[in-house]
Amino acid sequence: MNQNTRSFLALTKASLKMYYRNKGAIIFTLLIPVALLSMFGFLSSGRGPRIQVGLTNKATTEMAQQFVAALKSVEAFNIREATETDAATELGKGDIDLQVIIPENFGKTEEGKPTASTIQTRFNKGKPQSGHMANMVIVQIVTGLDKKVTNAPTVLDVKSEGVAVNNLGYFDFILPGILSMSIMQLGIFGVAFSFVAMKASGALRRIQATPVKPVYFVFAQATVRLLVTLSTAVILLVFGTYFFGFHMMGSYVNFFLVCIFGILIFLGIGFAIAGWARDETQVAPVANLIQLPLLLLSGIFFSRDGFPTWLKTITDYSPLTYVSHALRKIANEGAGLTELPMDMIGMGVWLIIVYAVAVKLFRWE
């Protein structure tokens, strides 16, 4: 092991000890994300007992209208009317518990005789009790309608099948967002404040006077933030999985690789701010000016689908959007890195931009 490597490892070890001796840093990087995660976890677990039903009505008959009205009158059901494709997608994501499809010939007659038709239902295999209970209600409604058809054998039927779904909920959506927020704040605030404080106290200038190359000090600081980010990700994943049933559908390796990309981007922003600012009073306004819009407009706490088109287009290109979107795609849909070309390219472009700016602005004094 050469001298440079030993210096780097020694600086990294010392920086890591300094970081965790700071109680504020522990609260900022670990306790606040865990507290937010707990809050959203308890809120998302408060879903009521109503069964979420996706209804597709392909028929135009009076009997079909009666069936729909009967479904909507069931207090235990929350009915969402949707196309068959949309309802199937919602069932696959776990957004609904049951999909009901009314066929086109439901309630029709031929030569004065009712046509046989079958209502198809698909239920979430992960919630069999809800599916079976809903099917029992639907069978009762169909049986009641069937009895209204006089002088005819049974012509209305229900066919049901279970579907394996991801059972993802709002908590599965929010955890990657909270982690993205933690990565951003650790990168921007963690670096900017500490480096400016060392710059103002003359510590950076004194480091330049030692035999250790200053660049190794910078690398050591970046490595510490990287290790803290990965440890935070592990803690949030374990906490979310154990207490709130978080579902990881994709690869943990890919998930952590995106975390690394994210912290590198926001470390670059932090270094750029630290290079420009002369003292700590200049850091907070600039850091907040950058992170607050990203926090509110990058889809961390809610989907950006409700944004105006122009705003959604602009926020599509924010670094936090790329990071949070990639983490969600991996965690919620099992996507691989090759399936996220725009996110990976976007993060790569931001890496180049932020470090070009950081190198231009960074000063040791």
UniProtKB/TrEMBL annotation:
Presence of the UniProt keyword Membrane in the record: yes
Subcellular location: Membrane
GO molecular function: ABC-type transporter activity
One of the record's GO cellular component terms: membrane
Protein name: ABC transporter permease
Main location: membrane
Coiled coil: none
InterPro entries: ABC-2_transporter, ABC2_TM, ABC2_TM_bact-type
